[in-house]
Amino acid sequence: MTYFDILLLTVAGFGAGLLNAVAGGGTFLSLPALIYVGVPPVSANATATLAALPGYASSAWGFRHDIKREGALSTWAIAGVSVVGSAVGAILLIITPGETFLWVVPWLLLFATFMFACGPHLLRAVRDRGVNSAGAAVSVAAMLAVSTYGGYFNGGLGIMLLATFGLIGYANLHGMNGLKSLVSAVVSLVSSITFITADLIAWQPAIVMACSITVGGYLGANLSRRIVRTDLLRHFVTVIGLAMAAVFFLH
Description:
The chain is mainly α and 251 residues long. The chain has one domain. 78% of the residues lie in helices and 0% in strands. It has eleven helices and no strands. Helix 4 (75-94) packs parallel to helix 7 (136-152). The longest helix is centred in the C-terminal third of the chain and has 25 residues, at 173-197.
């Protein structure tokens, strides 16, 4: 790697960790940066997942006092279902040819951007419909689906988790953010172990990005409590997501 590559990965990693903790959407920065420095698409996605792990963990630690059970499933049950789903998603990524994944990436980015932009409206709609008392079976199915998506592609996982938590009975925003970081860490850990076994990790870029993501994730967990205009940040991340999707569509 060149010095510019290291600088790019460091800046992108710090921004990704910050965004993941505050609003989500960090993959919009980390994945394109890894592909730009020459990491193959499937390997870049796997590497971005591993690099995000310490950021998720540090963010979850920052919210550790806020995580409390609110729905039909305990925190341990949610984590257990996430382990299964993320393993399935990771295996699906491993068997996906690089050319196919590169074709799918812009569509995944576009979908993740749409989910991110509509996240608050989705949460509001879920609560307005009064479906915040989903039973155990529905809760397991919802968590299995979103964790499978996260195991395959990390982009947009945060807001999809928040929407799912709203569906299965969660209401406290700080608790939801903490659980989001915890589940994201579980998904990333299981996926990363699978990717390491399949030799998909680009280790040098992963180490550089993981260090900066960790710092960004910890600072983001503290900053999230002080940010008043989260809507402006959400608009900013949405623009980044659309721009990244456009770049991948063009190339």
